[in-house]
Amino acid sequence: PPAMCPQTKRRLNRLFHHGPVAGGRRGGHDGVARSTLADLLLSAEPSPQEVRNLLLSVVHAETGRLLLRRTHAMLATQHPSSSPIREVLRDPIVNNYDRFSAAGLSSSRSGYVSRGRGSMVTFDLDLLFSDTGMLRRSDLEVLVRSGAGQQLPALQVSLEAEGFDSFVGGDAPAEDDADKRSDARMAAALLGVSLRPVTFFRGYADLLTKMWASGSEPTSVARALALLQRHTQILRLQSGLPTVVEIEAAMGLDITGVMEVSLWSAQSHTRINSR
């Protein structure tokens, strides 16, 4: 994203601002798509005016809450785009109680996993909920950043669900879920290499089938192993004997999950563990 060309950035801005309008009328893209577009634009060295337009154009409560929390989280980890964000937040029209007191569950959190002189490892966690309180999308990203401004995406895990508002007994489906059936899926990437997406279920019948077939133990969803370094060197000892030194370094990813659904209380609990 930092190397995004002006044509691509203009196209993303047009897609983002072509969103739902006030008053509940449908149009444009849903909250999941707009939050993804906003994250791309905020990570692509935006100008202060672009940041201002992003923060002032969101009318959907949950999407707007996530975007505001995301900008504050980027300030906490010294993100490369923190300078224009800090400048825009000095404006009371953007940064005021009326905007930041909006009700909702969506949130964003950033922090340091480790921090040294020449590099740092940060994490970003975004949670987007629907109007009825159901989780729509969860994004976890772990980045390795160097002092020179370079960054490496070490781990990315994205969970997305839709069509659950009527399933849990909501009064009416949310605007984003009105025309979608219930399904849940996950996408993961390790060191910038995307793994094959995983679909947990599609539709209510598939959900019940997998729920009764699964046990109480965690089920493995995805596993991956990435080779980080391979080094071979021949050292000659004082006695004249050659010694071969081989060094291999790898990083593995194991994602497991447990799903519990109660038809009596119309509640569901999902636990995803990644290591």
From TrEMBL:
<dbReference type="InterPro" id="IPR045811">
    <property type="entry name" value="MTP_lip-bd"/>
</dbReference>
<dbReference type="GO" id="GO:0005548">
    <property type="term" value="F:phospholipid transporter activity"/>
</dbReference>
<keyword id="KW-0732">Signal</keyword>
<keyword id="KW-0256">Endoplasmic reticulum</keyword>
<dbReference type="GO" id="GO:0005794">
    <property type="term" value="C:Golgi apparatus"/>
</dbReference>
<protein>
    <recommendedName>
        <fullName>MTP large subunit lipid-binding domain-containing protein</fullName>
    </recommendedName>
</protein>
<dbReference type="GO" id="GO:0042157">
    <property type="term" value="P:lipoprotein metabolic process"/>
</dbReference>
<keyword id="KW-0813">Transport</keyword>
<dbReference type="GO" id="GO:0008289">
    <property type="term" value="F:lipid binding"/>
</dbReference>
<feature type="domain" description="MTP large subunit lipid-binding">
    <location>
        <begin position="85"/>
        <end position="275"/>
    </location>
</feature>
<dbReference type="Pfam" id="PF19444">
    <property type="entry name" value="MTP_lip_bd"/>
</dbReference>
<dbReference type="GO" id="GO:0016323">
    <property type="term" value="C:basolateral plasma membrane"/>
</dbReference>
<dbReference type="InterPro" id="IPR039988">
    <property type="entry name" value="MTTP"/>
</dbReference>
<dbReference type="GO" id="GO:0005783">
    <property type="term" value="C:endoplasmic reticulum"/>
</dbReference>
